[in-house]
């Protein structure tokens, strides 16, 4: 069964500092990988996705992520964090299975706090 | 262009009651998936509907059931509510055959069971 591990429950960074959120996955084949962000009281917004091809993917809001098959990782990065980036971040692996859309398995999330 | 809309946004029920949550998918989308997000946890897949049929199901008991209508909207029903059913219920829609296979999520319905 597929699984996702986000080892950092809570991270605090200063505004303007760089950010890296860790994600490790377990999946038998080439995975569909996603990063979503959730602000308080909100649903999930897609930041970026990886299906195949270039292992460095660019997303919205200046985020990027790198797929490393050898490490089973898909870490999210941002060179300079803004106060508005404070939110909960979820990594997910997708499995089409027998369905017609990805069945996502999420990690437990990393809460990002940004200090001014 | 409206995204995924869910109703109600908040509701309170007591143990043993039944609840129905509703979801309208993003315009042009035909597949609806439901997720349960307990406090402090990541969302967990409940089930997925396409062409008015359940196509995939996660590890949830039969108390959780759903329906999809011809206009692609969907309902999630939970019977015999337990305290542990308290959670944010997220609906996500997507377009079959879209190679990007990306889900668009709604803001969720927060259920509190007392």
Shape of chain A: globular
Strand count, sense and barrel status of the largest sheet of chain A are: 6 strands, mixed
Number of helices of chain B: 0
User: How widely separated are the two ends of chain A?
Assistant: 41 Å
Rg of chain B from C-alpha positions? 13 Å
Distance from first to last alpha carbon of chain B: 37 Å
What does this structure look like?
The complex is a heterodimer of chains A (116) and B (114). Chain A has 116 residues and is mainly beta. In chain A, 0% of the residues lie in helices and 53% in strands. Chain A has strands at 3-5, 10-14, 19-21, 24-26, 32-38, 44-50, 56-58, 64-68, 73-78, 87-95, 103-106, 110-115. In chain A, the strands form three sheets. In chain A, strands 2, 5, 6, 10, 11 and 12 form a six-stranded mixed sheet that branches. In chain A, strands 3-9-8-7 form a four-stranded antiparallel sheet, with no helix packed on it. In chain A, a hairpin with a 5-residue loop joins strand 5 (32-38) and strand 6. The model of chain A has no long low-confidence stretch (mean pLDDT 92). Chain B has 114 residues and is mainly beta. In chain B, 0% of the residues lie in helices and 50% in strands. Chain B contains no helices and eleven strands. Chain B has strands at 5-7, 10-13, 19-24, 31-37, 44-50, 53-57, 64-68, 74-78, 87-94, 104-105, 109-113. In chain B, strands 2, 4, 5, 6, 9, 10 and 11 form a seven-stranded mixed sheet that branches. In chain B, strand 4 (31-37) and strand 5 (44-50) form a beta hairpin. Chain B is globular, with a radius of gyration of 13 Å. Chain B starts with a strand and ends with a strand. The relative contact order of chain B is 0.33. Chain A binds chain B through residues 4, 32, 34, 36, 41-46, 49, 51, 90, 92, 94, 96-109, and chain B through 4, 31, 33, 35, 40-45, 48, 50, 55-56, 58, 90, 92, 94, 96-97, 99-108.
